[in-house]
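Appendix B: complex inputs.
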Amino acid sequence: RYIRQLQRLQLLLSPTSADSRGARQFVEEAAVDFARQHPDVVLYVSLRSGRAPVLLAEYLNGTVREELIANKTNEEIVQLATKLAGQSGLDIIRIRKPFHTDNPSIQGQWHPLTNKPSALTVQGPRLQPK
Amino acid sequence: LLLPAARWLVAGARPGRAALSTAPNPNKKRWLRAYLEQQRLQEPPRRRSEKPNWDYHAEIQAFCRRLHENFSLDLLKTAFVNSCYIESEEARRRQLGLDKEAVALHLQDNSRLSEQGRAFSRSYLTRCFEAAYPDLPAAGTRALVDFLTSQELVSYVAQNLSIQDLTLCRDFPVPPNVLQRTFFAVIGALLNSSGPEKTEIFVRDFFIPQLIGKDLFEMWEVINPMGLLVEELTKRNISAPEPRITRQLGASTVLPLYFVGLYCDKKIIAEGPGETLLAAEEEAARVALRKLYGYTENRRPWDYSKPKPALAAAKAVSSN
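Resulting structure:
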């Protein structure tokens, strides 16, 4: 079954500063809708002044991701929150190859003895009595 | 970081003490951030419940929704309470000098739920394996179920489901046996709230995928595969296997490779590689056992479809 990897979102904003205006609008208008649409994510809103507004995302494997939401509009914050809700908590690093397979070989990987006849098997038509 | 401005007014050789604000001392700020980061990293790990922004009831509700299951919340809350927590809480309250009634916590343990959950999951998994691999002997199914309900696996699953944040336990980080107990208690709570069918689907969804990529003999320790193979073949009335070297490479080098094939009635049943002849024979016996039990790598993948209604009808008929 699908288990959303995002555990909780903490929205830390400031009540008065100008860069958390979008965050305040988000809290007033879109936060409750977001929480209703994602019932398995716990949304905490807390105020702290004097610091930049930040969205902390905590995932099930323990990673905590901080995203600055200073000077972002309401819609942008909603988009960012939905993006975080769809992510897993794996580190965001460069993926070395865009492909992966669990079955690298279907018929068995070649090794030097693959097509060599063994001593015990009976050889071809020459050995049959004519 | 906003540091109080007053500190920086006490300056070194700076002309004009009458100046109200001097520029902050640039040398002092550079190491401060690194120092604070180091202090933050060297802190002992704290429970999530002790950090800011924590609402236990909301977290439990989110936990239920995350697993797409309906739990009865008080059963679930009892499932997270461990006995070590109750003892430590009562000891703490006694130390703080509260009277007897306040000391007694009216909280039930999760031991009963944990036992129920453990027994249920073990029986269900045994039934699953008996249905999927009928040739596997009882020792094998027992080994598989033991592996799936072992401490490391269950505590790994529990940690990735955020059970570590929700358990009430005396120590942090929560030891794996407590996590295992709590996870089984959660399964027990689900059993009591939603009934056996839903719990079966839950157990299947979380335990069976842990078998992916695992080989049979990684999970089941077999000391004498050749003896076991001879027993299995006598049960099926096949003659004893005769080992022969099929191929060999580099017999006189440091890394020889021998392929030993096991023949029953002149027909080959398995072939296995090894560094020495004995190792190759043992490996061939293991390959033969895997083939006999149907646990090869190219077997059909696990069937995750919904349980058939025929079974439910059979149950209804038997109960009537």
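The two ends of chain B are 73 Å apart (CA to CA).
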